[in-house]
């Protein structure tokens, strides 16, 4: 049974989430403070953590940092729109994604499934991932689209690899730059934009109606395609 | 040369300076010695020499020096030339004529020279006063803050009046202001003068000036001038005070107007969606009626739409409050407006299914330094606004293109367009076009877009649309150009 831990100080939100998640077959644990959240993350070993950023005791970003010290559990941050910079900080601290309050359950469930796929993918560690007609052979560093090889530059491939190995996770500009370009990078968003653009073009992804890479302006990029088996 | 120095020059006429005493003694002595050295060439040459000495004394030392030299010469001439020599004695009218001529010459030359000197002094003093007044009045009318005006005022007084210090103490609308200036190198402790700063019946405070320890107190003329200047300063303060009050009153009026608009908007705009939501939920909870699945879905869709509308309204009001509080500081990064446009369209497309959004992006859109989330919001607001005014299945064209150092974004719809009389006001908060007073918008989206674009140094406007519909456009300066401007 999949266990979802909800950390939110609003009882109404906890109740609404519990009802909806249980209706979808999840096992739900709810707590109202950050301290309790860290403890519950350790004791209950949840498969997903839904974390409100505005907690009464400790900052949500601090909760993520503490949880990340012992767990790789997918964390989705629930936050109001007014705290945009906090969201980036939470993502940089190790959160997988964020959902803006008020959110639709449909969207939250979709994001939840996507982020949980990341940890499941890790376990199976599939060397070849397929997304409809796109296939990425990680050991061979080979990308094919409709059976034809897609020629990517090393940077483009690095970017694609970072994205497909973190499906559903919202990867911040800073994280991607450090991962693909190196530790000395972090603010060169223009490079990132240029390479994302050319990658999209080569993979045939329409930025206006993306099926592979979604842009979150001011935050980063997310790989949304579901792997086909 | 200061006003005080010109005053000293005026003393040539009124008193005898040290230089005057010296020339009074030296000039006749030199004349006597010269005539003696000429030997017995006769008194005519001696008279000429003494006349020259008198003129020199009068020119250099002034009237009193001239007269003194004339008297000395009058006695010296018979003393030197009359037989027996070196005896002081006058006889006959002819002998008396020489001193009279000498004195007359001294008087005429002295008066002429003194008058010219005084005229010169007066002229330069007038010029200086005019310059001072000009300087002060330009500082006073430029609408500067009172502190700055006063600082300038006391500083400017120091040199013209030869002051050791000048200090002004003023009370303006309950605030105590103090401005003080000191002349470097002057020893304070000399005589002081206190002048009130008065406009009509209102007294703002006083000006106190202090002369250096080794100088005399200010003359009556300087005191009058100081009073005139103080009146000007007081008038400037009065103006500053009235200006500040007018500004506060205007701001209050604007705030009140906004508050009233916000209040009516909040009561109306919040209650409407709340009413729909409550009606929908209560009918769903009502066990006495059977809703078929279609009805149920319709009620739930209404609830969802109205929740979104409420959420948008809350977000907009918060944004507006932040803008009003001046907290809208963009965190700028290099970004592409083309990429933001794509992301906004990708995100909004599912909810904008009743219109067709067409993206028109130019090749090579240059980078701009913007707060991406804020620009995302601008485009979101413009698109939602266009969608609200679009006919069913109407086309909305979102274009991004560079133009002369700017990146221009246009959002054009096929709706009824914006009436001429509304164009000035669509970017105002809570304004809804006269043609669509009941539009479901919050009346805030465009005001927020406007504030964000302006905070980025850009411009937002309503573009001409010859084919009908409305086209809202904004532009953001290109990054490299911005960098140049910052350097300049």
Quick overview:
The complex is a heterodimer of chains A (229) and B (488). By secondary structure, chain A is α/β, with parallel strands linked by helices.
Secondary-structure map:
The complex is a heterodimer of chains A (229) and B (488).
Chain A: E1 3-7, H1 11-23, E2 27-31, H2 34-44, E3 48-52, H3 60-68, E4 75-80, H4 84-93, E5 97-101, H5 105-124, E6 128-131, E7 134-137, E8 142-145, E9 148-149, H6 154-164, E10 170-172, H7 173-180, H8 189-203, E11 213-216, E12 220-223
Helix pairs in contact in A: 2-3, 3-4, 6-8
Chain B: H1 3-14, H2 18-37, H3 43-61, H4 63-81, H5 92-141, H6 146-158, E1 165-172, E2 175-182, E3 192-199, E4 202-210, H7 220-285, H8 293-324, E5 333-335, H9 337-348, E6 356-361, E7 368-370, H10 372-388, E8 395-403, E9 406-412, H11 445-455, E10 459-463, E11 471-477, H12 479-487
Parallel strand pairs in B: 6-8
Antiparallel strand pairs in B: 1-2, 1-4, 3-4, 5-7, 8-9, 9-11, 10-11
Helix pairs in contact in B: 1-5, 2-3, 2-4, 3-4, 3-5, 4-5, 5-6, 5-7, 6-7, 7-8, 8-11, 9-10, 10-11
Structural notes for this entry:
The complex is a heterodimer of chains A (229) and B (488). Chain A has 229 residues and is α/β, with parallel strands linked by helices. Chain A is built from 8 helices and 12 strands. Chain A has helices at residues 11-23, 34-44, 60-68, 84-93, 105-124, 154-164, 173-180, 189-203; strands spanning 3-7, 27-31, 48-52, 75-80, 97-101, 128-131, 134-137, 142-145, 148-149, 170-172, 213-216, 220-223. In chain A, the strands form 3 sheets. A 5-stranded parallel sheet of chain A has the order 2-1-3-4-5, sandwiched between helices. Chain A starts with a strand and ends in a 6-residue tail after the last strand. The model of chain A has no long low-confidence stretch (mean pLDDT 89). With 488 residues, chain B is an alpha+beta fold. The longest helix of chain B is centred in the middle third of the chain and has 66 residues, at 220-285. Chain B has a 5-stranded mixed sheet with strand order 6-8-9-11-10. In chain B, strands 2-1-4-3 form a 4-stranded antiparallel sheet. In chain B, 34% of the residues are buried. Classes of the chains: A alpha/beta (229), B alpha+beta (488). Chain A binds chain B through residues 81-82, 84-85, 102, 104, 187, 189-190, 193, 196-197, 207-210, 214-219, and chain B through 304, 307, 311, 315, 318, 331, 333-336, 339-340, 342-346, 349, 357, 359, 367, 371-373, 375-376.
């Amino acid at each position: 049974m999949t266990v979802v831990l909800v950390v939110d100080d609003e009882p109404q939100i906890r109740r609404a989430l519990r009802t909806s998640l249980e209706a979808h077959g999840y096992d739900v644990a709810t707590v109202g403070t950050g301290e309790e959240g860290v403890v519950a993350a350790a004791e209950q070993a949840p498969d997903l953590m839904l974390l409100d950023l505005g907690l009464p005791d400790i900052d949500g970003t601090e909760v993520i940092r503490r949880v990340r010290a012992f767990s790789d559990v997918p964390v989705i941050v629930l936050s109001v729109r007014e705290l945009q910079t906090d969201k980036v900080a939470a993502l940089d601290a190790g959160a997988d994604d964020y959902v803006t309050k008020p959110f639709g359950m449909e969207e939250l469930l979709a994001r939840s499934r996507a982020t949980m796929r990341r940890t499941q993918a890790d376990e199976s560690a599939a060397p070849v991932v397929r997304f409809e007609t796109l296939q990425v052979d990680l050991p061979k560093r080979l990308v094919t689209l409709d059976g034809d090889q897609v020629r990517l530059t090393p940077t483009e491939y690095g970017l694609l690899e970072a994205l497909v190995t973190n499906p559903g996770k919202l990867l911040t500009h800073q994280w991607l730059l450090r991962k693909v370009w190196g530790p000395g990078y972090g603010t060169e968003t223009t490079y990132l934009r240029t390479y994302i653009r050319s990658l999209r073009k080569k993979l045939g992804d329409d930025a206006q109606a993306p099926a592979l890479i979604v842009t979150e302006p001011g935050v980063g990029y997310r790989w949304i395609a579901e792997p086909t088996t | 040369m200061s006003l005080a120095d010109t005053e000293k020059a005026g003393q040539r006429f009124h008193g005898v300076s040290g230089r005057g005493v010296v020339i009074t003694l030296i000039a006749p002595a030199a004349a006597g010695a010269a005539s003696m050295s000429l030997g017995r060439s006769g008194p005519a040459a001696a008279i000429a020499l003494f006349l020259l000495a008198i003129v020199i004394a009068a020119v250099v030392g002034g009237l009193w020096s001239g007269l003194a030299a004339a008297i000395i010469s009058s006695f010296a001439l018979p003393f030197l030339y009359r037989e027996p020599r070196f005896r002081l004695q006058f006889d006959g009218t002819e002998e008396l004529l020489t001193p009279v001529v000498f004195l007359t010459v001294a008087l005429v030359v002295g008066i002429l020279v003194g008058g010219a000197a005084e005229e010169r002094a007066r002229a330069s003093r007038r010029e200086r006063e005019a310059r001072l007044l000009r300087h002060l009045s330009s500082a006073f009318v430029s609408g500067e803050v009172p502190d700055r005006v006063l600082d300038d005022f006391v500083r400017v007084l120091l040199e013209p009046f030869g002051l050791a210090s000048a200090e002004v103490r003023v009370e303006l609308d309950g605030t105590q202001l103090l401005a003080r200036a000191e002349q470097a190198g002057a020893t304070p402790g000399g005589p002081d003068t206190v002048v009130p700063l008065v406009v009509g019946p209102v007294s703002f405070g006083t000006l106190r000036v202090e002369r250096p320890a080794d100088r005399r107190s200010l003359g009556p003329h300087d005191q009058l001038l100081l009073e005139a200047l103080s009146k000007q300063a007081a008038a400037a303060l009065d103006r500053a005070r009235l200006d500040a009050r007018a500004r506060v009153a205007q701001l209050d009026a604007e705030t009140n107007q906004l508050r009233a608009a916000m209040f009516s908007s909040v009561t109306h705009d919040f209650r409407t969606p709340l009413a729909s939501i409550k009606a929908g939920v209560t009918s769903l909870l009502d066990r006495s009626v059977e809703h078929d699945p279609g009805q149920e879905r319709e009620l739930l869709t209404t609830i969802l739409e109205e929740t979104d509308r409420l959420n948008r309204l809350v977000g907009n009001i918060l944004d507006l409050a932040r803008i009003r509080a001046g907290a809208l500081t963009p965190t700028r990064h290099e970004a592409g407006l083309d990429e933001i446009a794509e992301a906004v369209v990708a995100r909004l497309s599912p909810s904008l299914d009743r219109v067709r959004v067409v993206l028109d992006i130019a090749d090579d859109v240059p980078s701009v330094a913007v707060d991406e989330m804020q620009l995302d919001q601008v485009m979101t607001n413009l698109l939602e606004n266009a969608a609200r005014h679009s006919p069913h299945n109407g086309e909305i064209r979102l274009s991004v293109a560079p133009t002369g150092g700017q990146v221009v974004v246009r959002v054009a719809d096929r709706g009824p367009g914006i009436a001429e009389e509304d164009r000035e006001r669509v970017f105002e908060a809570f304004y809804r076009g006269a043609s669509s007073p009941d539009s479901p918008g919050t009346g805030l989206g465009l005001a927020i877009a406007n504030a964000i674009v302006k905070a980025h140094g850009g411009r937002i406007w309503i573009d001409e649309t010859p084919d009908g519909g409305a086209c809202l456009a904004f532009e953001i300066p290109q990054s490299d150009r911005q960098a140049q401007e910052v350097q300049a």
